[in-house]
Amino acid sequence: MINKKQGLTLLSAAALSVSLSACSVFDWLIYKPDVAQGNYMDQLQVDKLRIDMTKAQAEYVLGHPVLRDSFADNTWYYVYHFKSGRDASVIHKELILHFKNDKLSKVTGDYELSKEFNTPLEQSQLPSQTQK
After folding, report:
1. CA geometry: angle at 55 spanning 49 and 76, to 5°?
2. 107: left (phi > 0), else alpha (psi -120 to 50), else beta?
């Protein structure tokens, strides 16, 4: 036989367990926005980069970098971080531009360089010009 005190304790425990489990059971109903941070770049922008470009030309093609080296303005960092709100998947990409004597000398990161990267801008055509 269950008395009132035991019944109340049992009912409280059941209500507590149901309310706590509701947080995880209905988690898919809660809207979580996608979070995009940094510089989004597509491959077409990276394909326009050429060796010996000036800093102004590189900034015109890619936009303002997220980070510039504080001690020497010879390294620019373009970083993109995307976290999906639905499944919490993460995309992280970076592109690092290295300058020597204020000219683009090297590019590293998660993007492929075009075949014409090592051809100076004066001697090559940009991708948009070749598609005409």
Report:
1. 80
2. beta
Q: Whole-model pTM above 0.85?
A: no
For residue 92, what pLDDT is reported?
A: 95
What burial class does residue 65 get, using C-beta atoms within 10 Å of its C-beta: 0-12 exposed, 13-18 middle, 19+ buried?
buried
Residue with tokens 């947080």: 23
Q: Which residue has the tokens 């303002």?
A: 64
Q: Report the percentage of the chain scoring pLDDT > 90.
A: 52
Contacts of 127 (CB under 8 A, 6+ apart): 44, 47, 48, 114
Burial of 122 (0-12, 13-18, 19+ CB in 10 A): exposed
SS3 118: coil
**Closest residue by Cα to residue 45 from 78, 12, 89, 81:** 78
